[in-house]
Amino acid sequence: MASYDVTDSAIKGYALVWQERRYLFKLVVFPLLIKFVCAMTVIANGLEFDFIKQALLMLPSYIADGWVMSHLVRLVYLDQRWPFRPSGHAHNDMAALRDRARGIMGGTIFFTLIEFLKTGYLGIFFALMSPPGTVPGQESATLLSPDTTVSGAAALLALALMVLTIWSVRYLWLYIPAAAGFSGRDYLRQVGGLIGSIRLLGAWMICAVPLLFSFIFAMNLFLSPFLTPQGFPPALDFLVNGMRVIVSMIAGLITTAGMACVIRSMFEVNKTRA
Fold first, then answer.
1. Using CA atoms, how far apart are residues 152 and 204, in angstroms rounded to an integer?
2. What is the pTM of this model?
């Protein structure tokens, strides 16, 4: 597989989101409201670790997010913006609308399926990794206890799951070729094997980790004085959850833009060296 600059391509995601911030703000307003309502419903019902019910409640949010990310992919690859502006030529406009609708629908469907599978995988992971007698949310404390022993089978299972997770990273971005209108099979072929997935994982970390760590640091710095054993006061808890939803949307925009640039660079380099 030909080499391509992961870092430079991923950083372009930050630049693009900043340059298009006004357009993206207009694009995400309603989907962000849907995401917030769904997230608050999950939290209010205590379903953070009930992954099946969580996925069902978050379905409208997944669809709305997929719609946003698909439009962003079309912007990166085809410089297309929402809403569609007709040129005045009916035949050409209908063909353009059909092509755009096919891409947006395909990207949204793939994004929604990927989010469902991610949630299901997390449920399976927690179920397999949870020691007997624990409840969801207590795994970390139990595993870090000095009295906890880890069997060889559990260690091998954890290692196998880690390798499988890294290898499967490539599938997280299948909505990008679907939205852009090119073959997902060609995309998987270009990525290659495990090394290709590792490079994509590195690109994702460049896009997402700085923002997420900055958010966590800011929350700990400014809100820790208000934290009680019962959690945050209701009004502040509402604000924190709202900020989490906003940061999650921003992280999704940056990672989608960055990964779209990485995949485009990957195709361009491999085409040049073919």
1. 31
2. 0.85
